[in-house]
């Protein structure tokens, strides 16, 4: 969609992919392990919003950074598969509608706070130059004009560096499909 906006001379940063659901899940799972409140946890989730492209950066949150390194791969996978976990828990009779609603409200509140003059940060999937990919989810600052700043991904530990490569390889494939679609449908 951002490519179509560009072709029409519109600002591609007005198109924002919502990845807050992955953040909410990562925060909840960290809270379960640590016994802390999810309100005190803020795990950035970078990359994308499907499978291995969902990359929680546990090392960047003070509470999740206390979790033993040997537990991180399973926690990472659980964050990626959170939606499937809910569907299975409901025996196929529903999906994560409540967590999606909460995440949408949280994201909307951050965007609206920014537009009202209170800059707020949240991870979002946007046209970006933080990696060599043209689109990537990382922390952004919402302000009076929408996305006002796209933050770097920050320091990653060795596990996260490996996961970044895995996420980016998959994202490249997905982005290339989107770019091909935009080229042939404008």
TrEMBL record:
Domain Lactate/malate dehydrogenase C-terminal residues, every copy:
19-180
Which PROSITE patterns does the UniProt record give?
Answer: MDH
- Keywords, in A-Z order: NAD, Oxidoreductase
Query: Is the keyword Protein biosynthesis in the record?
Result: no
In terms of PANTHER family, this protein maps to: MALATE AND LACTATE DEHYDROGENASE, MALATE DEHYDROGENASE
Similarity comment: family membership: Belongs to the LDH/MDH superfamily. MDH type 1 family.
Subunit (UniProt): Homodimer.
What is the name of this protein?
Lactate/malate dehydrogenase C-terminal domain-containing protein
Source species: Durusdinium trenchii
């Amino acid at each position: 969609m951002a490519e179509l906006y560009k072709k029409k001379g519109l600002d591609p940063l007005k198109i924002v992919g919502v990845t807050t659901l992955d953040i909410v899940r990562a925060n909840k799972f960290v809270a379960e392990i640590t016994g802390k409140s999810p309100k005190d946890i803020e795990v950035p989730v970078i990359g994308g919003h499907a499978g291995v492209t969902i990359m929680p950066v546990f090392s960047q949150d003070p509470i999740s950074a206390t979790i033993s390194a040997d537990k991180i791969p399973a926690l990472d996978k659980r964050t990626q598969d959170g939606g499937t976990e809910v569907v299975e828990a409901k025996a196929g009779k529903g999906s994560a509608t409540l967590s999606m609603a909460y995440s949408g409200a949280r994201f909307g509140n951050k965007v609206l706070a920014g537009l009202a003059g209170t800059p707020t940060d949240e991870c979002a999937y946007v046209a970006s130059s933080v990696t060599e990919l043209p689109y990537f989810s990382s922390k952004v600052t919402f302000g009076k004009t929408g996305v006002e700043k796209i933050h770097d991904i920050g320091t990653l530990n060795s596990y996260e560096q490996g996961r970044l490569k895995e996420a980016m390889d998959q994202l490249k494939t997905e982005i290339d499909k989107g770019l091909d679609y935009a080229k042939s449908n404008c």
